[in-house]
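Working notes for the structural subgroup meeting. M.R. asked for a predicted model of this chain before we commit to crystallization trials. I am recording the input and output together here so anyone reviewing the notebook later can reproduce the run.

Input as submitted:
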Amino acid sequence: MAADCSVIKAQLDEANRAYNEISNGAQVVVIVDAFRSRVEYGRANIPELKAKIALLQAQYVACLAGKPHAVMTRPVQFFF
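Returned structure, recorded in token form:
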């Protein structure tokens, strides 16, 4: 496993941990991403967290396969 694959795997594990904590009743879970950005997820953000997990899973699979990991699973959406 390449070094960047292990980073993606760590992010995926952290996102899955956050999802499990929120599903089990935690109010807010904080994730610090690879760019040292602090992101808070709560019950209202579950769809966003699921989308992040799906993207990280696709990036991890692509990384393990040796392909570029710029995988887009759907168009980008902006919420204001």
